[in-house]
Amino acid sequence: MKITVIGLGQMGGNMALTLHSAGFDVTGTDVFESARQRLADQGLDVASPDALPASDIYLLSLPTSAHVREVIETRPGLLKTAAAGSVIIDTSTSDPVDSRELSAKVIAAGLEWLDAPVSGGPKGAASGKLGMLLGGETATIERVSPLLEAMSAKRTHVGGPGSGHVVKLANNYLCAANLVATAEAVALAAKAGVDPAACLAGLNSGSGRSAVSEINFPEWIVSGRFDSGFTTGLMRKDLRLARDAAANLDLDLALLTETVERWHADSDQPADTDDFNHIASPILALGSVPTHSNTMEDAS
């Protein structure tokens, strides 16, 4: 099973190394020579985007749907260059409208499609413990199951092409909303004299718990580390995609709209380049949260 990984950022690079370590024949490519060199220095075979080897699977890990479209339609133009029967797997968080359009073109060209957006960050990509949301045909999933099993701890097939990206946007919307809501809850408790760590322990023992309160807060926020590997700019992009998806379906989702506006209210706090968990910092400051409050402001 020959695999080409297109996009060697923190996620794509770590996925490529994980597959390589698992014994797969992997070549990586990226438009940036520095990214290719970084992975080559770690033992991965790399190639220029203009000189990709023939592969059974093309695994895409790219910032936006526009980049995915460019790879499929123009550079390297997988619709024309990939051999019949090859599988294109898009692990990016992409616009489901674009995904469904591109998947139809991919299938019409005699290729197979799978959208497989991931969660778990660079650490999950490096350890092969990602979560994956799969949109595509069951037969395609079965065909590439050895690759999926090497990359992920949990895989959920949610429907046909584009469905994985729909659910990924829903997931990221909830994560974004929970970051704001949990920060407000902790700030409320702190202002009333409750230690933030005690508040979080209480939340995590009750119905208000979430992955944000159980993982994000202790791992990246309370610790002051803010090094999850996912930026505010990427979360803002995903929220805009979720908003647009709702609009295309004529859905008036008030909380989604408010969440999008909240995340875009101040482009400097946090900045697009900051870790996305920094959205909690100014909220926690309102409650004069003592634990790592200064670190939170200085860690970006």
Radius of gyration: 20 Å
Order of helices and strands: EHEHEEHHEHEEHEHHEHHHHHHH
User: What's the CATH superfamily of the largest domain, by name?
Assistant: NAD(P)-binding Rossmann-like Domain
The tally of strands reads 9
Oligomer: single chain
Name the overall outline.
globular
Level-2 CATH architecture of the largest domain? 3-Layer(aba) Sandwich
Mean pLDDT: 94
Per DSSP, the total helix count is 15
Tally of discrete structural domains: 2
Briefly, what CATH class of the largest domain? Answer: Alpha Beta
**Percent of residues in beta strands?**
5-15%
Low-confidence segments, given as residue ranges, are 293-300
Question: What is the terminal separation in angstroms?
Answer: 41 Å
Brief summary of the model shown:
With 300 residues, the protein is an alpha/beta fold.
Question: What does this entry look like structurally?
Answer:
It is a single chain. This protein has 300 residues and is α/β, with parallel strands linked by helices. It folds into two domains: 159 residues, Rossmann fold (3-Layer(aba) Sandwich), CATH 3.40.50; 133 residues, N-(1-d-carboxylethyl)-l-norvaline Dehydrogenase, domain 2 (Orthogonal Bundle), CATH 1.10.1040. Helix content is 52%, strand content 14%. The chain contains 15 helices and nine strands. Helix 12 packs antiparallel against helix 13. The longest helix is centred in the middle third of the chain and has 29 residues. It starts with a strand and ends with a helix. The C terminus is likely disordered. InterPro entries: 6-PGluconate_DH-like_C_sf (IPR008927), 6PGD_dom2 (IPR013328), 6PGDH_NADP-bd (IPR006115), HIBADH-like_NADP-bd (IPR029154), HIBADH-related (IPR015815), NAD(P)-bd_dom_sf (IPR036291). This is 3-hydroxyisobutyrate dehydrogenase. Pfam families: NAD_binding_11 (PF14833), NAD_binding_2 (PF03446).
